[in-house]
Specification:
Layout (H helix, E strand, L loop, with lengths): L4 H16 L6 E3 L2 E2 H14 L5 H7 L2 H7 L9 H10 L2 H12 L8 E9 L5 H7 L5 E9 L5 E8 L1
Antiparallel strand pairs: 1-2, 3-4, 4-5
Helix pairs in contact: 1-2, 1-4, 1-6
């Protein structure tokens, strides 16, 4: 299914601003508003390109730059986009998930799915090299049975 990127960016911008509310204009990092960072990440994932390609693609996408309010001479560096992804808090993604799930008709029937991953079985050498202190990870999703829309996600790490 082909997606019109401009329509996608405009709908994403609307949903992100709705989800973030009064926090949408606050800079997440790099001096750009938080909503711009979130929309850039959504665009990057939808268009299936990496962080380094994002500013180069934006140079040639004038309509998308205009929708995001970005100046062609002041595009964010790929490292700014990369770092902003890590700096965005979980509440930002949960708020976006909540708002986007409301766009789907809901059947009233939901399913729970839980996945558990135990990292203790991984080699201690790999855990030390990766700098990871996470031993177990559990992800639980609440999904509408008809639309298959993810309604909520709970992640716990130990």
């Amino acid at each position: 299914m082909e997606v019109d990127l401009l329509d996608f960016v405009e709908q994403c911008r609307r949903l992100v601003k709705q989800a973030l509310g009064k926090h949408a204009g606050e800079p997440a990092s790099g001096g750009f508003a938080r909503w711009k960072h979130v929309v850039l990440h959504c665009l990057r994932l939808e268009d299936d390109h990496n962080y380094r390609e994002t500013p180069n693609r934006l140079k040639y996408m004038a309509e998308i730059r205009d929708a995001l309010g970005l100046d062609p001479d002041d595009l964010p560096d790929y490292s700014t986009i990369y770092k902003s992804f890590d700096r965005l808090k979980m509440w930002v993604w949960r708020a976006l998930l909540r708002v986007s799930a409301q766009q789907h008709p809901q059947s009233g029937h939901a399913a729970l799915d839980s996945t558990f991953f135990d990292r203790r079985s991984a080699s201690s050498y790999y855990r030390q090299q990766s700098g990871s202190n996470i031993q177990t990870l559990k992800v639980t999703t609440l999904t509408d049975r008809e639309s298959l829309a993810v309604l909520d996600v709970h992640i716990s790490a130990r």
